Amino acid sequence: MDISLIYRIAGIGLLISILNIVLKQAGRDEQAHMLTLAGVIVVLIAIIQLMSQLFATVEQVFQVF
Amino acid sequence: MPGTPGRSRGDPARNRRDGGRSGITSGVRRLDFLFTVIGATLFTLVAVTYFRREWPGLALVTSLAFVVLLLLAVLPGVGQLVHVLQELASRAGVGTTYLAILWKAIAIGYLTAFAAELSRDAGEKAIASGVELVGKVMILVAAIPIVVAILDRLMGILP
Hints:
The complex is a heterodimer of chains A (65) and B (159).
Chain A: H1 4-25, H2 29-61
Chain B: H1 5-8, H2 12-18, H3 20-29, H4 31-54, H5 56-92, H6 96-121, H7 125-142, H8 144-157
Helix pairs in contact in B: 2-3, 3-5, 4-5, 5-6, 6-7
């Protein structure tokens, strides 16, 4: 089981939370909002590949074609 | 003896080298796998509880990633089970067509339960029940040949 992806997601989350706080303190709420959106999208892109792999494995394991 | 649990434990380079399916399958067999899963679960739990307060979207995505990783890690073990059951069924002379329908139903059930539980986790019960409904309908549609076969037998028995 390769859990480096979880570590990566947690790292991205922490980094963007901190940047978010900094941006909000600086009064740039719009950019903070965009940053959170971009973070979620980046993580989702990382996951999509994994999900297609999951579906392919399920098809292979249960021999559904 | 190569491949014994005692030998391969604590030697990740070797496990990575034989890679692929067999490596993960032996991983499911060893107790180290459970330790990894429990550790990763606790870590993810902490991260998700933090994110849920600060940033609910990322909490959802993190739990999604974790569940996908877990399923990917445990699926080779499921594959072994399926293989053994198929062998037993072929030894008992059960037709493989009906068994294939059973596997398909199980796969649909797992995947829809996965999606439905995640959406229920995010508080969207309507989406969850929608996905579950799709899964139920798909299982019923996949099971049509069995129903037809049962009805055929019944018609044969009846005078």
